[in-house]
Amino acid sequence: MDKDELTAWALRNGWQVLAGAPSLTKPSAPKEAIVRIVFKATVVNLEVKKPAGKWEKISSESYAKIQPDPDTGVPQGLGFEKIPSFSMLMQENKDRQIAISAALTAADKLNSVIFAASEKAIEKADANAEKWRQNANEWRAAILGAR
Predict the structure, then answer these.
(1) Which end of the chain is less enclosed by CB atoms within 10 A, N or C?
(2) Span 67-81, pLDDT tens digits
(3) Is residue 119 within 8 Å of residue 125, measured between CB atoms?
């Protein structure tokens, strides 16, 4: 797999690009990367953030030796099996992305409904204002005609 294939796989599976690297985040801190894939010229590094905040390389492999699993599509040879609860962490990140996407879609729909309602209210207010102007002109004409 090359850099583009690895990045595409990661983004489809709950990873997000943070500081230029596909990353998985803490469930409790979704902007703090704890696992990342670092692309070098000839190799790919898998790194985990230690509690002290320093990144530790847990594996490094050449692009040519990384192949997708035929059943799951997970890149083989990169060392994901060395990360405890890796699949659970990846699923939590993917679920969060799906929830965010659903919330954004719902917000877009709500904005459309609100916009349509406000446009209708503006049209009604404009029509009412025009009626008031017509009435005012009629009253003015009646008052001036009565003199």
Answers:
(1) C
(2) 998 988 889 988 887
(3) no
